[in-house]
Amino acid sequence: xxxxxxxxxxxxxxxxxxxxxxxxxxxxxxxxxxxxxxxxxxxxxxxxxxxxxxxxxxxxxxxxxxxxxxxxxxxxxxxxxxxxxxxxxxxxxxxxxxxxxxxxxxxxxxxxxxxxxxxxxxxxxxxxxxxxxxxxxxxxxxxxxxxxxxxxxxxxxxxxxxxxxxxxxxxxxxxxxxxxxxxxxxxxxxxxxxxxxxxxxxxxxxxxxxxxxxxxxxxxxxxxxxxxxxxxxxxxxxxxxxxxxxxxxxxxxxxxxxxxxxxxxxxxxxxxxxxxxxxxxxxxxxxxxxxxxxxxxxxxxxxxxxxxxxxxxxxxxxxxxxxxxxxxxxxxxxxxx
Length: 337
Description:
Elements: E1 3-9, E2 12-18, E3 27-37, H1 39-45, E4 58-66, H2 71-77, E5 81-84, E6 87-88, H3 100-103, E7 114-116, E8 120-121, E9 128-132, E10 136-138, H4 145-148, H5 151-163, E11 171-175, H6 179-190, E12 194-199, H7 202-210, E13 214-217, H8 223-227, E14 232-237, H9 243-251, E15 252-260, H10 273-277, E16 281-284, H11 290-299, E17 308-313, H12 317-324, E18 331-335
Parallel strand pairs: 7-8, 11-12, 11-14, 12-13, 14-15, 15-16, 17-18
Antiparallel strand pairs: 1-2, 3-4, 3-9, 3-18, 4-5, 5-10, 6-7
Helix pairs in contact: 5-6, 5-11
Protein backbone atom coordinates (compact mmCIF):
# COMPACT_ATOMS: atom_id res chain seq x y z
CA UNK A 1 0.00 0.00 0.00
CA UNK A 2 1.22 3.48 -0.86
CA UNK A 3 -0.02 6.78 0.50
CA UNK A 4 -0.13 10.32 -0.83
CA UNK A 5 2.36 12.70 0.75
CA UNK A 6 3.32 16.28 -0.10
CA UNK A 7 6.98 17.18 0.27
CA UNK A 8 8.89 20.44 -0.06
CA UNK A 9 10.77 20.54 -3.34
CA UNK A 10 12.25 23.67 -4.95
CA UNK A 11 10.07 25.88 -2.71
CA UNK A 12 6.89 24.14 -3.88
CA UNK A 13 4.76 21.24 -2.72
CA UNK A 14 5.35 18.08 -4.71
CA UNK A 15 3.12 15.00 -4.52
CA UNK A 16 4.87 11.71 -3.89
CA UNK A 17 3.48 8.24 -3.31
CA UNK A 18 5.29 6.06 -0.81
CA UNK A 19 4.57 3.39 1.83
CA UNK A 20 3.21 4.62 5.18
CA UNK A 21 6.01 5.31 7.70
CA UNK A 22 7.26 2.44 9.86
CA UNK A 23 6.21 2.52 13.49
CA UNK A 24 8.91 2.52 16.17
CA UNK A 25 8.31 0.78 19.54
CA UNK A 26 6.25 3.09 21.74
CA UNK A 27 5.06 5.05 18.71
CA UNK A 28 1.75 5.23 16.83
CA UNK A 29 0.75 5.26 13.18
CA UNK A 30 -1.87 8.00 12.85
CA UNK A 31 -4.27 8.34 9.93
CA UNK A 32 -4.68 12.06 9.33
CA UNK A 33 -8.29 13.25 9.26
CA UNK A 34 -7.74 16.99 8.96
CA UNK A 35 -4.55 19.03 8.64
CA UNK A 36 -4.27 22.80 9.00
CA UNK A 37 -2.08 25.12 6.95
CA UNK A 38 -0.01 27.45 9.12
CA UNK A 39 2.07 30.53 8.30
CA UNK A 40 5.11 28.48 9.30
CA UNK A 41 4.33 26.10 6.42
CA UNK A 42 4.37 29.04 4.03
CA UNK A 43 7.67 30.27 5.48
CA UNK A 44 9.19 26.79 5.08
CA UNK A 45 8.31 26.91 1.39
CA UNK A 46 10.24 30.19 1.29
CA UNK A 47 13.30 28.56 2.84
CA UNK A 48 12.72 28.67 6.62
CA UNK A 49 14.62 25.82 8.36
CA UNK A 50 15.73 24.35 5.02
CA UNK A 51 13.17 21.54 5.46
CA UNK A 52 12.77 19.04 2.59
CA UNK A 53 10.33 16.45 3.96
CA UNK A 54 6.55 16.18 4.23
CA UNK A 55 5.10 19.49 5.35
CA UNK A 56 2.40 20.09 8.00
CA UNK A 57 2.26 20.07 11.80
CA UNK A 58 -1.35 20.93 12.71
CA UNK A 59 -3.62 17.89 12.59
CA UNK A 60 -6.32 15.75 14.08
CA UNK A 61 -6.15 12.06 13.28
CA UNK A 62 -7.08 8.55 14.26
CA UNK A 63 -4.63 6.01 15.65
CA UNK A 64 -4.37 3.17 13.13
CA UNK A 65 -1.65 1.13 14.83
CA UNK A 66 0.82 1.14 17.71
CA UNK A 67 4.02 -0.83 18.27
CA UNK A 68 5.87 -2.33 21.20
CA UNK A 69 3.22 -1.73 23.88
CA UNK A 70 0.98 -3.88 26.05
CA UNK A 71 -2.44 -5.03 24.86
CA UNK A 72 -3.99 -2.66 27.42
CA UNK A 73 -2.16 0.37 26.01
CA UNK A 74 -2.94 -0.71 22.48
CA UNK A 75 -6.65 -0.87 23.31
CA UNK A 76 -6.46 2.59 24.87
CA UNK A 77 -5.14 4.15 21.67
CA UNK A 78 -6.12 2.26 18.52
CA UNK A 79 -9.17 3.77 16.85
CA UNK A 80 -9.12 6.92 19.00
CA UNK A 81 -9.01 10.47 17.69
CA UNK A 82 -5.87 12.35 18.67
CA UNK A 83 -3.95 15.58 18.32
CA UNK A 84 -0.18 15.49 18.62
CA UNK A 85 2.63 17.56 20.09
CA UNK A 86 5.11 18.32 17.35
CA UNK A 87 8.47 18.20 19.18
CA UNK A 88 9.90 14.68 19.39
CA UNK A 89 12.53 14.33 22.11
CA UNK A 90 15.70 12.27 22.17
CA UNK A 91 14.17 9.87 24.70
CA UNK A 92 11.45 8.93 22.20
CA UNK A 93 14.21 7.80 19.82
CA UNK A 94 15.84 5.73 22.54
CA UNK A 95 18.92 7.93 22.93
CA UNK A 96 20.77 7.42 26.21
CA UNK A 97 21.60 9.42 28.16
CA UNK A 98 18.91 11.94 27.38
CA UNK A 99 20.03 15.52 26.82
CA UNK A 100 20.27 18.15 29.57
CA UNK A 101 17.10 19.92 28.41
CA UNK A 102 15.04 16.73 28.63
CA UNK A 103 16.47 16.01 32.08
CA UNK A 104 15.21 19.46 33.10
CA UNK A 105 11.73 18.73 31.75
CA UNK A 106 12.07 20.92 28.63
CA UNK A 107 11.43 18.34 25.92
CA UNK A 108 10.31 20.97 23.43
CA UNK A 109 13.88 22.32 23.59
CA UNK A 110 15.54 18.90 23.32
CA UNK A 111 19.00 19.30 21.80
CA UNK A 112 18.38 16.36 19.44
CA UNK A 113 14.69 16.89 18.79
CA UNK A 114 12.90 16.54 15.51
CA UNK A 115 9.81 18.62 14.80
CA UNK A 116 6.80 17.31 12.90
CA UNK A 117 6.74 18.82 9.43
CA UNK A 118 9.44 21.36 10.33
CA UNK A 119 12.72 19.68 11.33
CA UNK A 120 13.73 16.20 10.11
CA UNK A 121 10.31 14.57 10.69
CA UNK A 122 7.67 13.99 8.01
CA UNK A 123 4.48 15.86 8.77
CA UNK A 124 0.72 15.94 8.36
CA UNK A 125 0.27 16.77 4.66
CA UNK A 126 -0.05 13.03 4.07
CA UNK A 127 -2.48 10.22 4.67
CA UNK A 128 -0.44 8.90 7.61
CA UNK A 129 2.18 10.13 10.06
CA UNK A 130 3.99 8.71 13.08
CA UNK A 131 4.51 10.15 16.54
CA UNK A 132 5.47 8.74 19.96
CA UNK A 133 2.50 7.84 22.12
CA UNK A 134 3.83 10.29 24.71
CA UNK A 135 3.15 13.09 22.19
CA UNK A 136 -0.49 12.17 21.59
CA UNK A 137 -3.57 13.58 23.32
CA UNK A 138 -7.04 12.09 23.10
CA UNK A 139 -9.68 14.36 21.59
CA UNK A 140 -12.96 14.47 23.59
CA UNK A 141 -16.10 13.29 21.82
CA UNK A 142 -17.73 16.74 22.03
CA UNK A 143 -14.83 18.38 20.17
CA UNK A 144 -15.31 18.18 16.40
CA UNK A 145 -12.48 17.55 13.95
CA UNK A 146 -12.83 21.16 12.80
CA UNK A 147 -12.11 22.34 16.34
CA UNK A 148 -9.51 19.68 17.16
CA UNK A 149 -7.32 20.63 14.19
CA UNK A 150 -6.68 23.91 16.04
CA UNK A 151 -5.25 22.21 19.16
CA UNK A 152 -1.60 22.78 18.22
CA UNK A 153 -1.84 26.53 17.44
CA UNK A 154 -4.27 27.03 20.33
CA UNK A 155 -1.72 25.37 22.64
CA UNK A 156 0.87 27.85 21.35
CA UNK A 157 -1.49 30.62 22.44
CA UNK A 158 -1.96 28.92 25.82
CA UNK A 159 1.81 28.93 26.34
CA UNK A 160 1.42 32.57 27.37
CA UNK A 161 -0.60 31.42 30.39
CA UNK A 162 2.30 29.19 31.46
CA UNK A 163 4.90 31.91 30.95
CA UNK A 164 3.09 34.82 32.63
CA UNK A 165 0.78 35.31 35.57
CA UNK A 166 -2.03 36.71 33.45
CA UNK A 167 -3.79 38.07 36.56
CA UNK A 168 -1.14 40.80 36.61
CA UNK A 169 -2.26 41.98 33.15
CA UNK A 170 -5.93 43.01 33.25
CA UNK A 171 -5.47 44.69 29.85
CA UNK A 172 -3.48 43.43 26.88
CA UNK A 173 -2.81 44.56 23.32
CA UNK A 174 -2.38 41.92 20.62
CA UNK A 175 -0.75 43.07 17.38
CA UNK A 176 -1.89 41.16 14.30
CA UNK A 177 -5.23 39.89 13.06
CA UNK A 178 -4.19 36.56 11.57
CA UNK A 179 -4.96 33.07 12.82
CA UNK A 180 -2.52 32.92 15.71
CA UNK A 181 -3.22 36.50 16.82
CA UNK A 182 -6.95 35.76 16.96
CA UNK A 183 -6.37 32.58 18.98
CA UNK A 184 -4.13 34.48 21.38
CA UNK A 185 -6.81 37.12 21.87
CA UNK A 186 -9.41 34.41 22.55
CA UNK A 187 -7.17 32.71 25.12
CA UNK A 188 -6.30 35.93 26.95
CA UNK A 189 -9.96 36.94 26.99
CA UNK A 190 -10.98 33.53 28.37
CA UNK A 191 -8.33 34.02 31.09
CA UNK A 192 -9.92 37.29 32.18
CA UNK A 193 -7.95 39.99 30.36
CA UNK A 194 -9.56 42.84 28.46
CA UNK A 195 -8.01 42.42 25.03
CA UNK A 196 -7.70 44.82 22.11
CA UNK A 197 -6.65 43.30 18.78
CA UNK A 198 -4.82 45.57 16.32
CA UNK A 199 -4.93 44.65 12.65
CA UNK A 200 -5.02 45.90 9.07
CA UNK A 201 -7.98 43.91 7.74
CA UNK A 202 -11.54 45.01 8.48
CA UNK A 203 -13.06 41.59 7.79
CA UNK A 204 -10.68 39.84 10.17
CA UNK A 205 -11.32 42.42 12.88
CA UNK A 206 -15.04 41.81 12.44
CA UNK A 207 -14.48 38.15 13.32
CA UNK A 208 -12.69 39.18 16.50
CA UNK A 209 -15.50 41.54 17.52
CA UNK A 210 -18.02 38.73 17.05
CA UNK A 211 -16.00 36.81 19.64
CA UNK A 212 -16.33 39.76 22.04
CA UNK A 213 -12.79 41.04 21.51
CA UNK A 214 -12.03 44.75 21.24
CA UNK A 215 -10.42 45.80 17.96
CA UNK A 216 -8.65 48.73 16.32
CA UNK A 217 -7.69 49.01 12.66
CA UNK A 218 -4.15 50.11 11.83
CA UNK A 219 -2.30 50.81 8.60
CA UNK A 220 0.50 48.36 9.17
CA UNK A 221 3.27 50.79 8.26
CA UNK A 222 5.61 53.27 9.96
CA UNK A 223 2.82 55.82 10.37
CA UNK A 224 1.31 53.67 13.12
CA UNK A 225 4.28 54.57 15.34
CA UNK A 226 3.13 58.20 15.37
CA UNK A 227 -0.64 57.72 15.25
CA UNK A 228 -1.14 55.12 17.98
CA UNK A 229 -0.99 56.49 21.50
CA UNK A 230 -2.24 53.47 23.45
CA UNK A 231 0.07 51.67 25.86
CA UNK A 232 -0.26 48.33 27.60
CA UNK A 233 1.54 46.55 30.37
CA UNK A 234 1.36 43.43 28.15
CA UNK A 235 1.76 43.53 24.38
CA UNK A 236 1.78 40.37 22.26
CA UNK A 237 3.44 40.71 18.85
CA UNK A 238 1.86 38.30 16.37
CA UNK A 239 1.86 40.24 13.11
CA UNK A 240 4.13 37.82 11.29
CA UNK A 241 6.02 40.88 10.06
CA UNK A 242 9.39 42.34 11.13
CA UNK A 243 7.81 45.80 11.25
CA UNK A 244 5.44 44.70 14.00
CA UNK A 245 8.27 44.53 16.52
CA UNK A 246 8.92 48.29 16.43
CA UNK A 247 5.25 49.05 17.03
CA UNK A 248 5.10 46.50 19.83
CA UNK A 249 8.03 48.21 21.58
CA UNK A 250 6.32 51.57 21.20
CA UNK A 251 3.08 50.27 22.76
CA UNK A 252 4.67 48.47 25.72
CA UNK A 253 4.63 50.49 28.94
CA UNK A 254 7.83 51.11 30.93
CA UNK A 255 8.65 47.91 32.81
CA UNK A 256 5.93 46.19 30.82
CA UNK A 257 6.17 42.84 29.06
CA UNK A 258 6.52 42.32 25.32
CA UNK A 259 5.80 38.77 24.24
CA UNK A 260 6.96 37.67 20.78
CA UNK A 261 4.99 35.09 18.81
CA UNK A 262 5.94 35.84 15.19
CA UNK A 263 8.19 33.54 13.21
CA UNK A 264 9.28 34.55 9.73
CA UNK A 265 12.06 33.83 7.28
CA UNK A 266 14.74 36.48 7.00
CA UNK A 267 16.37 39.13 9.15
CA UNK A 268 14.52 41.80 11.10
CA UNK A 269 15.92 45.25 11.80
CA UNK A 270 15.69 45.83 15.54
CA UNK A 271 16.41 48.92 17.64
CA UNK A 272 17.12 47.89 21.19
CA UNK A 273 17.09 51.30 22.89
CA UNK A 274 13.34 51.21 23.72
CA UNK A 275 13.90 47.90 25.53
CA UNK A 276 16.74 49.38 27.58
CA UNK A 277 15.26 52.83 28.23
CA UNK A 278 11.81 51.53 29.17
CA UNK A 279 13.23 48.43 30.91
CA UNK A 280 10.92 46.18 28.92
CA UNK A 281 10.84 42.45 29.60
CA UNK A 282 10.93 40.60 26.27
CA UNK A 283 9.62 37.03 26.25
CA UNK A 284 9.89 34.60 23.36
CA UNK A 285 7.01 32.13 23.12
CA UNK A 286 6.59 29.01 21.00
CA UNK A 287 4.76 25.71 21.50
CA UNK A 288 2.46 25.20 24.45
CA UNK A 289 0.30 22.93 26.64
CA UNK A 290 -2.08 20.71 24.68
CA UNK A 291 -4.12 19.83 27.78
CA UNK A 292 -5.08 23.47 28.34
CA UNK A 293 -5.98 23.94 24.69
CA UNK A 294 -8.18 20.83 24.66
CA UNK A 295 -9.85 21.93 27.90
CA UNK A 296 -10.74 25.30 26.35
CA UNK A 297 -12.27 23.58 23.32
CA UNK A 298 -14.15 21.05 25.44
CA UNK A 299 -15.60 23.77 27.67
CA UNK A 300 -16.67 25.93 24.73
CA UNK A 301 -14.80 28.96 26.10
CA UNK A 302 -12.91 29.15 22.81
CA UNK A 303 -14.43 28.36 19.41
CA UNK A 304 -11.89 28.71 16.58
CA UNK A 305 -14.12 27.43 13.77
CA UNK A 306 -15.12 30.93 12.51
CA UNK A 307 -11.45 31.26 11.47
CA UNK A 308 -11.84 28.51 8.85
CA UNK A 309 -11.84 30.04 5.37
CA UNK A 310 -11.99 26.89 3.25
CA UNK A 311 -11.30 23.15 3.16
CA UNK A 312 -9.56 21.24 0.36
CA UNK A 313 -9.09 17.55 -0.31
CA UNK A 314 -5.64 16.32 0.69
CA UNK A 315 -4.84 15.62 -2.96
CA UNK A 316 -5.26 19.32 -3.68
CA UNK A 317 -2.64 20.47 -1.16
CA UNK A 318 -0.70 22.65 -3.65
CA UNK A 319 -3.87 24.56 -4.55
CA UNK A 320 -4.75 24.83 -0.87
CA UNK A 321 -1.43 26.37 0.14
CA UNK A 322 -1.66 28.83 -2.76
CA UNK A 323 -5.15 29.79 -1.59
CA UNK A 324 -3.92 30.16 2.01
CA UNK A 325 -1.58 32.95 0.87
CA UNK A 326 -4.35 35.08 -0.64
CA UNK A 327 -5.30 38.34 1.02
CA UNK A 328 -7.95 38.00 3.71
CA UNK A 329 -7.72 34.20 4.03
CA UNK A 330 -7.39 32.70 7.50
CA UNK A 331 -7.32 28.97 8.24
CA UNK A 332 -7.25 26.57 5.30
CA UNK A 333 -7.73 22.86 5.98
CA UNK A 334 -6.76 19.67 4.15
CA UNK A 335 -9.23 16.79 4.46
CA UNK A 336 -8.09 13.22 4.10
CA UNK A 337 -11.16 11.57 2.58
